[in-house]
Specification:
GO molecular function, one term: metal ion binding
CATH topology: Farnesyl Diphosphate Synthase
Keywords: Isoprene biosynthesis, Magnesium, Metal-binding, Transferase
Distance between the termini: 20 Å
CATH superfamily: Farnesyl Diphosphate Synthase
Radius of gyration: 18 Å
Pfam family, one: polyprenyl_synt
Protein name: Polyprenyl synthetase family protein
Structural class: mainly alpha
Helix content: over 70%
Number of strands: 2
Shape: globular
Largest sheet: 2 strands, antiparallel
Strand order of the largest sheet: 1-2
Number of helices: 14
Family: Belongs to the FPP/GGPP synthase family.
Amino acid sequence: MELLERRRALVEARLVDVIDGLEPETLTEEVRHVALSGGKRVRPMVTILTCETVGGVAEDAVDFGVGIELVHNASLVIDDIIDRSELRRGTGSAWAEFGHGPAIITSDGLLGEAFALFSADPHATRVVSEAMVELGIGEATELSAQPDCEEEYMTLARRKTGALFRAAAELGAIAADSDPVTVEAVGEYAERVGVAFQIRDDVLDAVADADDLGKPTGHDAVLERPSVVQVTDLTPEEANDRARTEADRAIDALERVDVSDPEARGYLLDLAEFVVERER
């Protein structure tokens, strides 16, 4: 656990460095509010742990990890505007704190800083660009062409959440100069973890207490969003079983990877369990 905290500290320190160097300085307060107001840092940890698992070192993956966290935070800013959610991570969402205009500009600023971190590696830039295309299609589908069956829901979950998880892991493998087969295997692992994460997120929105979750609940039903509970006939328990299946398949994908650091791989396996069992 101490080593895991050290890796997280690398991300936090680099994140602060990037944000403190923002221009114009008038954006700094808004960006700090979004990027430094908590969060599990799951995606950057996936990047670093994947890099170490396949033979790289943590420091080589930090910039990519911070970049994917900035992309994730940028997407959350827009999500909260669309959902009219006033709370994020137990504090005010960006638009609720600063207004819609500054929030949108903040999202743009986060993306700009992220791609500055990816720009030295064309492969990394392509991976993240493709993930953002998938994310955009997912967001558009959620708003205008909602799924009406379990299969369509799973496609949406892959695009809306799985794609960015996939990019996080692939970036870690890229940082370690891995071969394409390894990049694909860790990408599948992370994509399936992301889908499991989204299913569990939908279940929590339906059944959890808002104070425990740190954000409003019941939004999917009120806004008629295509959550696993709304789109399918699955009970929350059955939906959790689907999440478990995705997590198990993620572990299977990770089994195809030649492991250089068993400890790092162990944390990736723990993550596959965590996303199914988490309570917030």
